[in-house]
Amino acid sequence: MSLKVIVSSRNINLRKYTSIKIGGKAKYFFEADTVDDICRIISDFDNSYYLLGGGSNLLIKDVLIDKPVIKLANAFNYIRKSGDCVEVGAAIPIPHFLQYCLKNNLGGLENLAGIPATVGGALAMNISSFGRDISVFLKGAEILDEEGKIKKLDREQIQFDYRHSSLGGKIVLRAWFKFYSEKDLKTKVNSFLDKRFQAQDFGFPSCGCIFKNPSSFTAGFLIDSCGLKGARRGDAQISSKHANFIVNLSQAKYEDVDYLICKIKDRVYQKHEIILEEEIERWI
Ligand SMILES: Cc1cc2nc3c(=O)[nH]c(=O)nc-3n(C[C@H](O)[C@H](O)[C@H](O)COP(=O)(O)OP(=O)(O)OC[C@H]3O[C@@H](n4cnc5c(N)ncnc54)[C@H](O)[C@@H]3O)c2cc1C
Questions:
Q1: Half-sphere exposure (CA, 13 Å, Cβ side) for 63?
Q2: Do 35 and 173 form a contact (C-beta atoms < 8 A)?
Q3: Residues forming beta bridges with residue 186, ordered by sequence position
Q4: In tens digits, what is the pLDDT along the chain, a chain of 284 residues?
Q5: Could you give all domains of the chain from N- to C-terminal order, each with its CATH number?
Q6: How far, in whole angstroms, is CA 1 from its chain's centroid?
Q7: Ligand 1 pocket, residue 189 CB under 6 Å
């Protein structure tokens, strides 16, 4: 049996798998190396599971998480050339993918430099930055659908919207991208990284932006306009650098972040009559 049960009786601390370093323990934590493994776990748990990517968009409650947590293991962590495309396993972190692009002078993803996602999570959420999303250079993806069927989808068969794609709820297994040849990629990557480090708060753990931007203003602007930058509860703090970030100063708890999120929603609604929608995903 290829199924590798990392821990089932001894519980796995999810905090170390999230970028904000908050979270309880997973009662069942699986690293799946094959599609058969994934299907077996899903069927054993009646189709109820959590899929973990890079953990960079997750806020997990400090409780014992009963649903099995599935992480795509090493077999999904590869990059190779495939005709005129690059094929990547869904577990590849975007920073590693960019390193490969840099080495091979492949332009297209440089605006995503610094985003700590995996390819699977990035496609499910349709990450974007500086006006361009990950779908632009995507050619297709292989997924495991809700019925347990493997499907190969062309880019045109996938719907991408702001922080959403039709791949959410499915399991991305691998994807193909076609890039353009770019000689001076390093300069571009460095310039995007500079802009990111200037704008975002990388001083402490976070899950990036907490809220989606409404159509009128950025969420960060709205939160700042309510004077909330720097507001703190326990070790959770609304970043003084980027108001749409909540950072974990040391030992922040789920409840601390939740308190600040509620406070932000209340204050922004009172002042602007705008309901902020969360971008992060909660596991509770
Ligand atoms: C410092 C920082 C900066 C960030 N900057 C940006 C930014 O500029 N732009 C932006 O868009 N986002 C940004 N993010 C948010 C985050 O990186 C994205 O939301 C990303 O899509 C999360 O990917 P992940 O692999 O970490 O997924 P996770 O956080 O682990 O999971 C997020 C969702 O994706 C699903 N998922 C994970 N893997 C797969 C898969 N293989 N198949 C299908 N679904 C899957 C999960 O089940 C979950 O629903 C930032 C986050 C941080 C911490």
A1: 8
A2: yes
A3: none
A4: 445 544 444 689 999 999 999 999 999 999 999 999 999 999 999 999 999 999 999 999 999 999 999 999 999 999 999 999 999 999 999 999 999 999 999 999 999 999 999 999 999 999 999 999 999 999 999 999 999 999 999 999 999 999 999 999 999 999 999 999 998 999 999 999 999 999 999 999 999 999 999 998 999 999 999 999 999 999 999 999 999 999 999 999 999 999 999 999 999 999 999 999 999 999 99
A5: 4-74 (3.30.43.10), 77-181 (3.30.465.10), 202-283 (3.90.78.10)
A6: 30
A7: no
Cα distances (Å, whole numbers) of residue 32 to 68, 77, 171: 12, 11, 12
Q: Closest ligand 1 atom to the C-alpha of 114?
A: 3
Residue 234 Ramachandran class (φ > 0 left, ψ -120 to 50 alpha, else beta): left
pTM: 0.96
Is the shortest distance between the CB of 52 and ligand 1 below 6 Å?
yes
Spell out the alpha helix ranges (H) of 4-136.
35-44, 94-103, 119-125
**Are β-strands 25-26 and 206-209 bridged in parallel, bridged antiparallel, or unpaired?**
unpaired
| Dist CA 91 CA 173 (whole Å) | 8
Measure 22 CA to ligand 1 centroid, in angstroms.
Answer: 16
Ligand 1 near 140 CB (within 6 A): no
CA of 53 to the centre of ligand 1 (A): 7
